[in-house]
Amino acid sequence: MRSTFGACPQTGWCGRWLLAGLLAWLLATRALAADTAMADTVMPRPPELDRDVHFWVRVYTEVDTNSGFLHDQYNLSIVYETLHFVAGSSSRERERVVDEARNRVAAALRRIAGARDTPVSPEDQKIKDLWGVEGSPGRLLEAIDDMRFQLGQSDRFRAGLIRSGAWETHIAETLANLGLPAELAVLPHVESSFDPAAYSKVGAAGLWQFMRSTGRRYMRIDGSVDDRLDPFRATEAAAQLLAYNYRLLGTWPLALTAYNHGAAGVRHAVDTLGTDDIVKIVRHYNSRSFGFASRNFYVSFLAALEVDRNPQKYFGPIQKLREARFQEVAVPGYVSVSALERALKIDRDTLRELNPALLRAVWDGQRRIPRDYHLRLPTGGPQWTTELLSQRLKPGELYAGQPEARRYRVVRGDTIASIADQYGITAERLARANRLRTSAKVRVGRLLTVPEPAAGELVAASAPGTPLAAPATVGTPGAPPPVAMASAPVRPGGPASLVHGDVTDLYVVEGNDSVSAIAGKFGLSEDELLKLNGIRNRDFIFEGQPLVVRSPPTQATAEPAAAPVATRETQAAVPAATHEASAAPAVVQEASATAAVIQEASAAPAATHQASAAPAAMHETPAAPVAIREASATPAAAAVQAVPTAEGPAGTVALAGGGVPEDEAQREVREDAAAVATAHENAQPVSAAQAEAQGPSLGAASDPQQNPDPTDYGIAKDDTIRVAAAETLGHYAEWLAVTPARLRQINRMGSGRLVVIGRKMHLDFNHVSREQFEERRRSYHQNLQASYFAAHRIRGTEVYIARKGDSLWTVTQRFSQLPIWLVQEYNPDVDLSDMRPGTQIVMPRVEVVASGEP
Questions:
Q1: Residue 504 has pLDDT above 50, yes or no
Q2: DSSP labels for 435-478?
């Protein structure tokens, strides 16, 4: 008899071998199922969202950017028509096709709603069947306003699958190193179709579509480098942001939604509905800013995950790009691209392709590649090191800094063309450097940046900046050390000294202190103390605030340098030994002695704020809506009281306390906000070009800044707020246009009491609206954060376990004197005023930005 297991009847080995194989297959299948179940647990796909996921799978696989769906924006199973455009047709023609379809469907919905139970035409019946039992007359009439057009994405998604091969290994390694789910690797499909050069009309850039304000928390973004355009650096930043969101929100559906809607927005949704269930939030959360893009971000991610897992099912065979390979070398000084081309014997196009983060100003010759920049080079050939590159560069090709920016103040009769002609450059270069059109009228008195002439243009002056004597002199010992803070921390309740040429005493405000008590303790009048610290309002002092209590010697005071105005003369040479920038750009070197020594401090965890009386050289950004670059003897008088009210002339913001120069980082925040304000939440592109400009395939969000700040700056129904870090009673009074005494009265606060982080504060809206107050408050914090992250970057986190005797002040001093608001952002649910032993606090690891470049 023939064995049922095969041709081995004597031994039965074949049968046993097949049985073992079957068991192994079953075990592998179960393991795969377990892995899939685990993935589904990490990234759950609730059945209630299946119709939404299916819609996005169709968008990603069935229709390309010459087609699209006319659909209901709330019930994504309702697709009225699939529209097809003529390839190459204009946006106006496509919009006409969409409008005609909208009108057609709207008329049908009105007919169906009015027909009640009477028969309708076959075409109308199809629409009626789509709605089923949900299609009541009232709902059908509402659906007229709920129609939306979604452009197809299949060609973009397929191209993204191909492109993803270049970076998928690095993305996988980055996620694994942070312990993040591997599924997050598909997010760039939703954000940019894996296009590292993607740039949306709201200002989001790169593979992961970072806004500048958020990107600066984790990446280098300045006048020479924009790491958002580097898929490797941007991946590392995105992983940090996603890990941060998950730590705050606790689930991946919420963390991913926060990538689009912002951490504070998602936390508000959770608090409003009392649930972290993504289905309930997507279906029931109502907010002006929680629109189509935010509602659909997680389901579009799930759809991208499904398609990415099964590319052949939807697109057939896909040949991905090979993994990107290169070598890196740290640049030994500030070097022009032309010098590197000569030294490396590598053409500019190759260098540009490998280094997408270097901005046009570098390739045009206006700026140099920064010192210590990790330049990517092709594999093969010499194994480059910094030392070898230094040897290959000529002594006159290494510089200690960037070319000094030239400025020109516009006079009557000037035009872009006439000014450009004066400096031997093209009108296009001058306009581009100032974000203007060549035909733009320039206002008399405006300061324009004048770029250096490029190759082929008339050179009116020799290249600015002084070349180093030899490569070996880069960073030569003997250069004056950067301005440094004293190693000993300021002690609460007593004076301390900080090093800044001469010694200045500081006193840290305690809980029961008052202006009069502190002044008396140090033999000063109240007016002297306030003037010494640049304080106009006595209610701008708070617990933990360092105050100057002794005037510095007069010789220590240095007037801030005026901004240079461009001339045709060669700029003065500066020896390399003295040209090196400070390694800590947060410390202002051109400031008065009074202003330059004050570091943020907090004597007790209950203190609400870290606004300093003299913010020009704080490790943290000044506690003011607008940063002051050129510090005066009493900068706080302008800074602390300043409240943005309206945009003034270029480079200036109109303030309640007078106009001051606008910080570059704060200007970018304002421009980001303006771009977002002009982007319609439900924008519906009709062409590939519009879709690329829009950014994400599902359209721009109302808040596409991925804003990591989880603080709710809203106002409760009873006209109260929760005090946030860096806020004082004086701030509230200024924003409300009331006196501090009025706020003390309605909050029953004695003259010695300070506001405390997390406590309720009653407000008076008799002079400004709730919206005005909220906008002023939010702008203040945005600018505060923008200025800080212009000089600092987050490199990771660590958990600190509070010990006996710890306070918020002592802890922040252990961690590079972190600003309290940043610690609060990472610990929004921890009562920092009650730091008991054993309390776990997540502390961001922050580094000073090495370049300090604008």
A1: no
A2: T--TTPPPPTT-EEEEPPPPTTS---SPPSS-B-SSGGGTT-TT
Contacts 24+ apart (CB under 8 A), 567-574: 567/406, 568/422, 568/423, 568/460, 568/461, 569/461, 570/461, 570/462, 570/464, 571/404, 571/461, 571/464, 571/465, 573/466, 574/400, 574/465, 574/466
Answer for the pair 398, 333: CB distance below 8 angstroms, yes or no.
Answer: yes
840 by Cβ neighbours in 10 Å (0-12 / 13-18 / 19+) ranks as exposed
Question: DSSP states of 123-191 as a string?
Answer: HHHHHHHHHGGG--HHHHHHHHHTEEEEE--HHHHHHHHHHHTTTHHHHHHHHHHTT--GGGGGHHHHH
Per DSSP, which regions of 705-791 are E strands?
720-722, 760-762
- Please state, in angstroms and rounded to a whole number, the distance separating the CA atoms of residues 243 and 260: 14
The closest of 323, 471, 322, 478 to 391, measured between CA atoms, is 471
Backbone Cα Rg of the chain: 31
In a domain, 716, yes or no: no
| pTM reported for the whole predicted model | 0.71
Strands (E), 314-356: 327-330
What does the alpha-carbon distance between residue 832 and residue 822 come to, in Å, rounded to a whole number?
12
What are 771-799's pLDDT values in tens digits?
999 999 999 999 999 989 989 999 999 99
Please return the burial class of 526, using the count of CB atoms within 10 Å of its CB with bins 0-12, 13-18 and 19+. Answer: middle
Residues in the chain, overall count: 854
Q: How many CB atoms lie within 10 A of CB 527?
A: 10
CATH number at residue 447: 3.10.350.10
State how far the Cα of 262 lies from the Cα of 287, in Å rounded to an integer: 13
For 633, other C-beta atoms within 10 Å of its C-beta total: 16
Q: Which of 423, 448, 463 is the last residue of a domain?
A: 463
pLDDT at residue 23, rounded to an integer: 54
Total tally of structural domains belonging to the chain: 4
Q: What is the arithmetic mean of pLDDT over 213-236?
A: 95
pLDDT digits (tens, 9 = 90+) for 622-676: 333 322 222 222 223 223 233 333 323 233 233 333 333 455 555 555 555 555 4
363 and 412 co-located in one domain: no
Greatest mean pLDDT among 69-78, 639-648, 686-695: 69-78
Angstrom distance (rounded) from CA 165 to CA 318? 10
Q: Which of 430, 347, 426, 345 is nearest to 382 (CA)?
A: 345
Query: Which amino acid makes up residue 468?
Result: L
Alpha-carbon distance of 183 to 303, in angstroms, equals 12
Check whether residue 101 and residue 147 sit in a common domain: yes
Beta bridge partners of 81: 70
Residue 11 domain boundaries = 1-41
Q: Of 352, 379, 397, which marks where a domain is finished?
A: 397
Q: What angle do CA 825, 830, 833 make, to 5 degrees?
A: 100
CA distance 241 to 210: 10
For tokens 């000089």, what's the residue?
791
Give the closest residue to 248 by CA, choosing from 218, 221, 271. Answer: 271
**Pair 802, 836: CB distance under 8 Å:** yes
Predicted confidence (pLDDT) at residue 703 exceeds the cutoff of 60: no
